Amino acid sequence: MKLRALPLALLALGFVACTGGDDDGTDDNTNQPPQPRNVDPINGGGTSGGSINGVLTVFVIDADDQPVADADVLVLHKGEKFELKTDAEGRIDLNKDGLDKTLSLHVFKAGYEFTSAFGFDASVVTIAIDDGTEEEPGMPQVGTVTGTITGWDRLPANTMTSARVVQVGPVGQDVVDVMQKPRPGTVTIDDPDGTAFNLVINGSGDFPMWTDYSLELDTRAQKVIALGGLFDLPGQSFDVTHIGLIDVSVAQGAVVMQDIDLDNPVDQDLTLTTSGVPMLDNTAAIFAVEMADGALLPMPSSAYANGMGSARAPALSGDFADARYAAIFQASSMEFVGNDPESSAVAFARGTNQAFTFDALLAPPNAPTATGRTIGTMPVSGSQLTIIEVRNSDDDQSLWSVAIYGDAVGTVELPAVPAGLTDPLTGARILQATVANYGDVELNDVAFETLRDAPLATSATSRSEVSL
Question: Going by CATH, does the domain composed of 7-134+362-453+463-467 fall within 3.20.20.70?
Answer without folding.
Answer: no
